[in-house]
Amino acid sequence: MNVRSLTRGLCSAAAAATLTFASATIAIAETITVTDIAGRVVEVEKNPSKVVIGEGRMIYSIALLDQDNPFQRVVGWKDDMVRADPDAYRKYLAVYPDIADLPSFGSPYADEWNLEAVISLGTEVVLMNLGSLLKAQESGIIDKLEEAGIATVFVDFRQDPTQNTIPSIQLLGRIFDKRDEADAFGDYYQAQMKLIYARVQGIADKDKPIVFIERAAGYNPGACCRTFGAANLGRLVDLSGGRNWGSLKSPGFSTAVSLEAIFADDPDVIIGTGANWAEINPATEAVLFGYDADEAMVQDRLSILASREGWPELSAVKNGRFHSVYHQFYNSPYHFVAMQAFAKWMHPELFEDIDPDATMKELHDNFLPIDYSGVFWGSLKAGG
């Protein structure tokens, strides 16, 4: 019997005993008061056994804490990881086959969400993303959950990742009673970030290249372009020793831009983002990064993107500074790996000894229940 089945069996036995022996002493669950990343003071059950996650990709973070089984307390989720990162889903599915039966409730901020089903599961906590706070407030879902005795907690790995990743991990560590694991990852995260910060401080502004990030490059063939403003991956570029082109154009999280503006400015470095979107969009020309990716595919897709009309004339393509990276780093506590890749692309001599691939392997070996495989970033090779 696996751990999850055993846990379910014990919970069922305990519930039956409570119903059968009404006079027995009932253990009262311990609650703690926390301040979530939205600044909300929330009373939540400590070490909950039934959690619903408002986005499936929160598993990236939960896996750092519940390392034996990241799904052991998850009773429902949104299926975005299944659809947008199927490589990761299959990787976890191979180790935890029960997740094939995990209920999907869609978006908790939309009418499709089945609140009754969430309540019927005995859910104790619902985790939501900070970026959807306004939607959650407008939909009234927070109040409805509170009326049902279910705590709502907001975390953030996307809106302001460098500021909110460690507080979010620490918050989950407190709630899940996994503070040691949260501290261990926090120490590792800080060490990896400082490898970059310590060197970037000495780079003069005039030596920082202009970097254009093409968000979801090639997702829809023929459509271009969206980029990150002074947030998320755009902010990570700035912290890695570059000047994010999008930050100069918009303060927003993400913005649409014209090809004419990109061609006119001719940025020094171009970084696209990609993931395995082929299963939800078979026509995509994106680089299908993930646990199932291989180098041949990466080069083929990079060549396609660099060959789009007008792109071969850009300096970044001509000078071998055309790259791409795993899109899901934008919503993951693992973004320090992407930053190491960025830093090497922008300042190869200064960061010659930094090895993002070794970092990614170390992350998996020390903190995650799945092994490292696949490809998560790449650069267009000469003649590609």
Automatic annotation (TrEMBL):
SUPFAM superfamilies: Helical backbone' metal receptor (SSF53807). Keywords: Signal. Residues 50-354 form the Fe/B12 periplasmic-binding domain. This is Putative periplasmic substrate-binding transport protein. It comes from Candidatus Rhodobacter oscarellae. Residues 1-29 form the signal peptide. The keyword Metal-binding does not apply. InterPro entries: ABC_Transporter_SBP, ABC_transptr_periplasmic_BD.
